[in-house]
Amino acid sequence: MTEPSRVANEAKRTDDGGLLETVKVVVQALLIAVVVRTFLFQPFNIPSGSLIPTLLIGDYLFVSKYSYGYSKYSVPFSPPLFSGRVWAAEPKRGDIAVFKLPRDNSTDYIKRVIGLPNDKIQMIDGILHINGQAIKKELVGKSDVSAGAGYRDQATYYRETLPNGVSYTIQELDLYGNKLGRNTQVYTVPPGHFFMMGDNRDNSLDSRDMTSQGVGYVPFENFIGRAEIIFFSITEDGAAWKIWEWPWTVRWSRLLKPVG
């Protein structure tokens, strides 16, 4: 073999080896990403205002998949590998959780856990009642807010404290909110189900709506995980891919903020 031929063959083997190593690294990275997404953390973004003021449109957060154990909905595309949950740990009252909407078992929803199995839940004049007891509700303040389409509204904020001590702020709207949810029937949460509500009480489709277009009671199997931390946040009129606009569209104060 002539010297030029030997050099060319060695160069080809080096190129082939480098390509193979690159493919192996990419495959390994993809496998790690799938494992992390399936068993540890999954990113979600907030497309609606149902949890204002706790979560804002444009928030991006990590959800811990291991918090409640695993069901078929923990796996991408929800293959029917098994029923129920493994390593199950029930959601706690006050958790903000992502779940599959019961009416289609495919749409991701995020709300706060208010009612546990066998609880009786009712709203009376805007005050949450759990098992016949009124939940503490303290006035925080008011603010002028956007109601969409160029309209403005007045929002009133209250601090609500659940029986287990979890405390958070809710929002009520003066003009454009749906006030029907401020007075409801008594809901008795079935065994193995949970009652979910948004913090934006007059603008949240949640378990208070038992119709075929509502949320209703959420089966434990439908839970995906618990919201843990906001890792990115951008204003409603911003776009995450427009990096050059980040200095004024990113909500810097919300980055790495725990969800609660």
Structure, explained:
By secondary structure, this protein is an alpha+beta fold. It folds into two domains: 1-39; 40-258, Umud Fragment, subunit A (Ribbon), CATH 2.10.109. The chain contains two helices and 15 strands. The protein has helices spanning 3-39, 246-249; strands at residues 41-45, 59-64, 96-100, 108-115, 120-124, 127-130, 133-134, 136-148, 151-161, 167-173, 187-188, 193-197, 218-219, 223-233, 257-258. Strands 1, 2, 3, 4, 12, 13, 14 and 15 form an eight-stranded antiparallel sheet that branches. A hairpin with a 2-residue loop joins strand 6 and strand 7 (133-134). It starts with a helix and ends with a strand.
Key terms:
about 260 residues; alpha+beta; Umud Fragment, subunit A; 2 domains; 8-stranded antiparallel β-sheet; 4-stranded antiparallel β-sheet; 2 helices
Topology:
Blueprint: H1 3-39, E1 41-45, E2 59-64, E3 96-100, E4 108-115, E5 120-124, E6 127-130, E7 133-134, E8 136-148, E9 151-161, E10 167-173, E11 187-188, E12 193-197, E13 218-219, E14 223-233, H2 246-249, E15 257-258
Antiparallel strand pairs: 1-2, 2-14, 3-4, 3-14, 4-12, 5-6, 5-11, 6-7, 8-9, 9-10, 12-13, 14-15
